[in-house]
Amino acid sequence: MTNQLEQGANSRVFVGCSGWAYPTWKPAFYPEKLASKKFLEYYATRLNSVEVNYTFRSFPRRTAIDSWLAQTGADFRFSFKAPQRITHFQRLQDCGPTLEAFAGALQPVVDAGRLGLVLFQLPPNFKADEGRLAQFLADAKACRFRMAFEFRHVSWFDAAIYKLLERHEAALCVAESDELETPDVPTAPFRCYRRRKTEYSEAQLAEITAGLRERAAKGDVFAYFKHEEEPTGALWAASVLAAVRGAL
Asked: What pTM does this model have?
């Protein structure tokens, strides 16, 4: 498989939401008369990445992937949430066959050079297990895609875990919500942020923008805002990306 760990000559900032198929984003984000089949195409005119949450429960069909690739440009990146079978059911244990099948499903995106990263979001009741994570990272190495881990139990926020991620060039996903905020510790040649707070002020969005530009000096940066029925997250994402582009 193509090695997605390799960095290009120029690092980039990729900003988006965790989904795009929301009619309720009209008219603030999508034009009022835009057909739903055109949502992704329009989304890609304002944002340059999306985190596909659909893959948490089902592998993507080849026909769907081909359609997504056709509706977006060469600079657009698709990130995917890893299957719940891996993160929630098997809890990172004995995941070789599932990992292989998932990597195979994503291969068309890899072949097109359009894969962002794969997010492994662990359940809140999954406490730190360094040995299990080490074995999983060793098994996942053959997949050759960029991996980010969103830990939702505070026991994972430990120097030994950070060093383990760093050895495997896997990112600690910096996930913030009203309940929990992950330490911003660099562990990979790229960075991953998930912005999930209920509200962001203009000052906070400006701070996020400056942080993304700064971190892009050392590698690709991916940032995803919340995806709810209201278009607020999409509008925040579009504002941040426009500000990043305007400053470059």
From this structure: 0.93
